[in-house]
Amino acid sequence: MLGDFFTRALVAGVGLAAVTGPLGCFVVWRRMAYFGDTMAHSALLGVAISILLSINMTLGVFAVAALVAGALLLLQRQNTLSTDALLGILSHSSLAVGLVLVGFLTQVRIDLMGFLFGDILAVSTEDILIIYGGGIAILVLLALNWRPLLAATVSPELAEAEGLKPEISRILLMLLMASVIAIAMKLVGVLLITSLLIIPAATARRLSATPEIMALVAAVLGAASVIAGLYGSLTWDTASGPSIVVAALLIFLLSLTVPTARLFGRRENHGA
Amino acid sequence: MDMRTKGETLITLTNAGVRSGHRILVEGVDLTISRSEIVTLIGPNGSGKSTTAKMATGVLKPSMGTVTRKPGLKIGYVPQKLSIDWTMPLTVERLMTLTGRYARSEIEAALAAVGAGRLLGAAVQELSGGEFQRVLFARAMIRKPDLLVLDEPVQGVDFSGEVALYELVRQIRDTTKAGILMISHDLHVVMAETDTVICLNGHVCCRGTPAAVKRSPEYLALFGTRAAETLAIYEHHHDHEHHDDGCVVSKDGVHAHAGHHHG
């Protein structure tokens, strides 16, 4: 079944979308879009370091993304530069350092375009195992911590007063994002990962009445974007990663025409 | 009403304070909150009200003194303001289960208790300020808390809304016997039902019943006489006797009700 490269791409993409949908909702809710971008940009640095130290690439990318996120948290506490300036510094410098390091690695041939824009059609069965293994782990962690994560997102202050630990929720979300970036990099590339987090979630918002439904709708819409994008790229011979993002964008634009009163999961108002 | 029977002690702060770096946020706070008791913290911005409340609820650890809480103390919290962004789709029903799981019937009962039963299916972004406030009360109360913490409960609510809210607080106290800790910088209004007002300004500057505090020289020095004229306007038909010692911090910190009789 997984013999065909196109089928493998479909299976891998849908598996990834199932994870980026729910996690992307948190990115949208917590206004972490640029933050996610910064973590993604550091992935190339992760690749370079993995090769230098000859460690597992997925692990290396995860570690560097998590480190960058941690660095940002520490810098934010200094109360000096604004968060967006800090993100700008981290985002572009980690990308630049990554590119420079890759240039030094003359003994290994690196497909730079593959890392920047992804190569979902080159996905191996082993990659699929990583995506589904990692993806299921991420979804299980999300599901188990859903209530505290959501409470911390709605109001950290309230969550804290009622005995939850919003700071831990925040760290958990960052680690989950670093994991998603590590498993998604090969598929859509460091420059497009955040689009799979943000666009389906943003589309789902207009169609959903509760956070849980939004997470579910985002996963379904993400999967639809992957399928539409891949078939589009097959039909018109376009780059597969960007085609998926374009499909997600088209679905988003389409959703703008749906009247907001039509919501999934909306209860009838009682007596109102 | 007879002398109110005070229940078990929920929280005790003894000479408690918090230091942040070299700065002392608040120090020397003695405070107890018991079941069915209403304690109000007042003070200007930066006086340590929130810090004190956070010490009491356990969000902040005291860097001086001690804080003891009843084991397993359950806290319900009504935040000062909660702006829920449009990107977060949240119905009232879902908001009610934000920090815990409850049956539909419990949710309906909790909303009905604050007169917000018909809002169950509404999106929180569509609620008016007063409706949202009631829903937040219901959300805190569904936890059946031992202690209800109200942060600036009447901020942004108009006068008749204030009266209604205080009535709600009184009702909650009477029916659930929860202890209530209120934080207020609105010095003009302190609920007359308040058993103890603690006036903070980096330390406890005075304390006692609302009537005692408004006459205390420390309070007048801090907020001026105009504030005193309008403090505790909900002090209706009381025939209390108060000692004028409300502003002196006693060593045991529990003197506030001495000589205070509810008629």
TrEMBL record, chain A:
It is found in: Cell membrane. It is a multi-pass membrane protein. InterPro entries: ABC_BtuC-like, ABC_TroCD. One of its GO terms (biological process) is zinc ion transport. The chain crosses the membrane at residues 6-29, 41-74, 86-108, 129-148, 168-201, 213-232, 244-264. Its main location: membrane. GO terms for cellular component: ATP-binding cassette (ABC) transporter complex. Involved in the high-affinity zinc uptake transport system. Belongs to the ABC-3 integral membrane protein family. PANTHER family: ABC-TRANSPORTER METAL-BINDING PROTEIN, HIGH-AFFINITY ZINC UPTAKE SYSTEM MEMBRANE PROTEIN ZNUB. This is High-affinity zinc uptake system membrane protein ZnuB. It comes from Devosia soli.
